[in-house]
Amino acid sequence: MFLVGTDLVSPFFPGGDGRFTLGQNITLAQALAFVPAARADIESHAFNCTLPTSVECFGSISGPLFSTEFQIPYSLQYSLGVQRELPWKMIFQGDFNYRKGVHEVLVYDANHFGSEFGERTAFGNAIPYADSSGFSTYMAGLFAWIVASQMDSK
Fold first, then answer.
1. Contact 105, 74 (CB under 8 A)
2. Which of 8, 31, 114, 135 lies deepest, with the highest CB count within 10 Å?
3. Whole-model pTM?
4. pLDDT digits (tens, 9 = 90+) for 12-33
């Protein structure tokens, strides 16, 4: 599930939500102590809710909304290498690698608009939105001169 931050609400959480808004530092032992009670409280809301959707029951979206133009991510990869024996017992080696990731997935909170931490819509919690507009490019080259102590003569 993608419920995070203020989307998780339970009186068992310090501060009442998943962000621990009281600013308290808690230890792992303290967290493990209240997790079962908080989980039971959250699940009781889910199983006893008579509203038609989980958005209405929890006031949050339980997974990302996908762009209508979402495309399957893939990558293009190329590799080229050359190795040549040179005079004076030397070897030249050159390698080049290229990778381009296309349609990589980006997930962001669509409920923030305007500035980076701008106003929210009337729906007060996060709306995770996934699109495939991301990309990445990797290029690397390795070039080496190797002096061989013994090379077979041809």
1. no
2. 8
3. 0.49
4. 666 655 555 555 666 777 777 8
pLDDT in tens, 85-96: 988 888 999 999
Give the residue among 58, 67, 54 at the shortest CA–CA distance from 129: 67
Tokens of 116: 């980076």
CB-CB contact of 79 with 95 (8 Å): yes
Instruction: Write the DSSP assignment of 35-73 as a string of letters.
Output: HHHHHHHHHHHHHH--SSSHHHHHSS-SSPEEPTT----
* Edge-to-edge strand ranges of the sheet holding 65-66: 65-66, 128-147, 90-109, 74-86
Contact in structure between 39 and 58 (CB atoms under 8 Å): no
CB 130 within 8 A of CB 109: no
* Paired strand residues for 55: none
The DSSP string of 98-143 is EEEEEEEEEEEETT--SSTT----SS-S--EEEEEEEEEEEEEEEE
Residue 75 neighbours by CB distance under 10 Å: 13
